[in-house]
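Proteins fold reproducibly. Look at a sample protein:
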Amino acid sequence: MEVGKGCANFSISRAQPPVITTPQDGQVLSPQQPNTVFSWTPVIGNTIGANVVYDLYVVKVLDGQNPNDAINGAINFKANNPIIKKNLTSNQYVTQPYDLKIDSNSLYAVAVVAHDLNRKVGFVNDGKSEIVTFTKGKSIMTIPITTTIPKDSKPKVGEYVFTNIDPVPYS
């Protein structure tokens, strides 16, 4: 064999995009929770020399709208007034009071897009995660129910007096 001539086999693969772990697809979140937590896996693959950052997109899905169309509109055109957080260096974001409010009883779509600021790593699906949808449940208002027990009545032996008044004050 001559020096400098020959064949070599090697494969080139692109890194896998993030996978959203919270919220889960179809999850109904508690409306009593003031902040919403979004989390995702780091990209998977050879990212040596990369400076990977994430863009988070959260958008309300309009009645009759496909969640894919809602996310694509948010990513490409900022349509439907989405929550957009760019160049996140961690794989989690917790909504803040200054973020747009996530309304109860509305369907939302979420996507995360990974980018390499050094442009050394390519990503499957251009770094875009699968789309996840979620809703915030209805607000539940609890009203304490009280019953009056006549003053002169006393429980008989073996009877218990039950009340449904919560001893913990409202916070």
